[in-house]
Amino acid sequence: MSDNLTGLYAQTYKGNIQLLLQQRGSRLRGSVTEDSGYVGNQASPVDQIGSVEADPVTGRLQPIQGKELPNDRRWVFPNDFDLPLFVDTFDKLRLLEDPTSSYSVAATNGMGRKIDDIIIGGIFGTNKTGQNGATSVAFPAAQQISASLGASAATGLNVAKLKKAMELLLAAEADLDNDPVYLPISAKQNTDLMNEIQVINGDYSALGATVREGRLMSFMGINFLHSERLPVNGSGYRRLPLYLKSGVHLAIWGGATTADISQRKDLKGLPYQIYLWMTMDATRLEEKKIVEIPCAEA
Predict the structure, then answer these.
(1) Which residues face 251 on adjacent strands?
(2) N or C, which end of the chain has less CB nearby within 10 Å?
């Protein structure tokens, strides 16, 4: 039971309950692939098939020699989460407004934010590959660009970094016509880009900047998502993941982000319990579909 609920006891001049500023639900879930119905202690969301090249035929009636097709398997593992809240009946009697609905919204928002944390962890974390998931794969240094690109020292997000990140995707033969590109950024990186002449000057309209209410929504074919949950590296630089939707997978064993509300008959006052749970994991599906852009925020 939340002891903080007593701080909302009704006053004669105030009869509503407001949710404090917070990220409302998941902002990244729609930018990745997902599937549900996983079972067991581990599962493989995709079998990875590599590429082969044709060889020239240099003579007549030569023997056929088969080629090995490179393949791998990426694994996900179930992680359990829950979020229980109690609304005490005795506290409700002292409130002008029933807080149960607002508590449900707050709980649902909290679970949505946790989904974003799971996705970010899957992008930057050590993933498991191999036939049985026994091989660990760290985020590759080859997919990280310099924090000082486009400047003489470590700098914030700039157009030069975006161009380099897109170059890496193009060099890897990314299907940009059919696979959308996403880049979560914090408010600081949004400000950085809004100070870039190539973003705000109409002479660069070919780059396609779309701004809504002070937020950069798209630029250079990149869809921007606002997130204040991105980690920093050992140098204190914000780690931004630019990725193709097909490059990240959210695996769902069970649970939902809608709250179950029930009355607890085993507790005094018969309080209401708001309960959410979920079992999920996330993973990179292919390293070359993700580029890390480190940004200074000083």
Answers:
(1) 35, 281
(2) C
pLDDT tens across 57-99, in order?
Answer: 888 888 888 877 666 788 999 999 999 988 887 777 655 466 6
* Encoded tokens for 101: 């609905």
Please, are residues 109 and 83 in contact by the beta-carbon 8 Å criterion? Answer: no
Three-class SS of residue 258?
A: coil
Q: Give the helix ranges, DSSP H, for the chain.
A: 89-92, 100-124, 159-171, 187-194, 197-200
Report whether 291 contacts 145 (CB < 8 A).
yes
Written as six digits, the tokens of 231 are 């980690």
Tell which residue, 97, 78, 88, 99, has the closest CA to residue 36: 78
pTM of the model: 0.84
pLDDT over 60 (residue 159): yes
Which residue in 272, 288, 285 sits closest to 1, CA to CA?
A: 272
**16 in Cβ contact with 100 (< 8 Å):** no
Residues 6+ apart with CB under 8 A from 121: 282
Rounded Cα gap, residues 262 and 104, in angstroms:
12
Contact residues for 180 (Cβ-Cβ < 8 A; gap 6+): 31, 223, 244, 245
Where does 23-148 show beta strands of DSSP type E?
A: 33-36, 43-49, 71-76, 79-87, 127-129, 135-137
